[in-house]
Amino acid sequence: KDPMLDDETVQTLETFFELDCNVSETAKKLFIHRNTLLYRLDKFKQESGLDVRTFNQAVHVKIALQLYKVTKRA
What pTM does this model have? Predict the structure, then answer.
């Protein structure tokens, strides 16, 4: 199992994408402080080299996340 994609990270990213990359709305929906969400996104950026707050990199992560979920089920 990939430590970078633990359940919390996957849930955070999926919610972030579901809410059109809106930091405030994502934090509210996850019941966490906005700064906690920013910390999680920064941690993901450090570990993956991808910043989901930029459109192009968010698209790459979204596609990779979909592929990860499909292959994990197989």
Answer: 0.89
